[in-house]
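WP5 quarterly update. Target: LacI family transcriptional regulator. Source organism: Kosakonia cowanii JCM 10956 = DSM 18146. Length: 357 aa.
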Amino acid sequence: MDKKLKISEIARRTNLSTSTVSRVLAGKANTSEKARAAVLACARELGVMEGIAAGRLLLNNLIVFAPQRAFDERSDIFYYRVIQSINKALEPHDVRLRYCALEELDSDANEFLARMNAAETQAAILLGIDDTHIHELAADIGKPCVLINCRDGRMRLPSIAPDHRTIGEFAARYLFDMGHRDVVNVMCLRRYTMDLRLAGIKAAWQQQNLRFNSKRDLITVPSFSAKEAALRVAEWLDDPANKTPPTAFLVSGDFMAQGTVQALLQRGLRVPQDVSVMSIDAFNLAAIQDVPLTAVHVPRDELGAEAVQLLQQRLIRPQAPTGSLLLNGTLAVRESVRRIRPGQRRTAVAGDGLYDA
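Structure tokens (predicted):
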């Protein structure tokens, strides 16, 4: 539906004139508040507002560089869904989207240059590429380029990513607010983003005047799989040095949370009656062993849409300052975390809800 038809449709639905609708959508002040509210509500319903915000994307060919695993949902569901969100954000536009696999580090610079210097390449998105040489080449080539979930240490390229540090801090603080003081963290630290998350967790401990002991309070897992997490958590629980389980596990991934719950159940520990489990992830699992999972959802689908918006800004204002856009997480309060009151280890489950982190 083109612009004129949508204005006519909004006018018909709101019983207002097309000129009034046009004035509201153009941001003019000479309309009543009632008319303005009605037009904007209808425009949102019809998807007009999104079109106004995005405008016409000023390119027709875009290439996405990402690690090979990003193109396989079973290998990396997070990056795979980010790529799908880029696809979805480009649907309203006449854009040909191409892909190229690059290693996170020690990337093939010749392959990158060949793709970037191709006549059909007008702009690029780099997803999860940490190679600083690639970042330098992208900046030197001068074509619009946006980074997703990676950073340019020389600050020449704009980037967008989850605010990993704040997300980690927020998740740990939620458990502290629920009365937990004996918390063990289960993490895979294979990338600096997880180091940022751990730094946030440690900051939350410090705010509670608690000393974080990595040997006691951190279980590291080589991958994000449930199997590896179950093995490492089982080893921790069976270690004679850990005579009693913690009141809560904070796990950096839903599949790792699944493994953590499995290890607990195998030892006769119930979730959340005996031990609470909280996850930090992109809502891959809503429940584990029929227990609704309390989690801080990491932005995932939003990354692609916001990256396209950021790319549009670079096309319109190529000389504008570059910076990093960090997205907040969202807390999903379900039933895998119980509140601990002074002197108790088992109490009522917190209520359901969603909150911005």
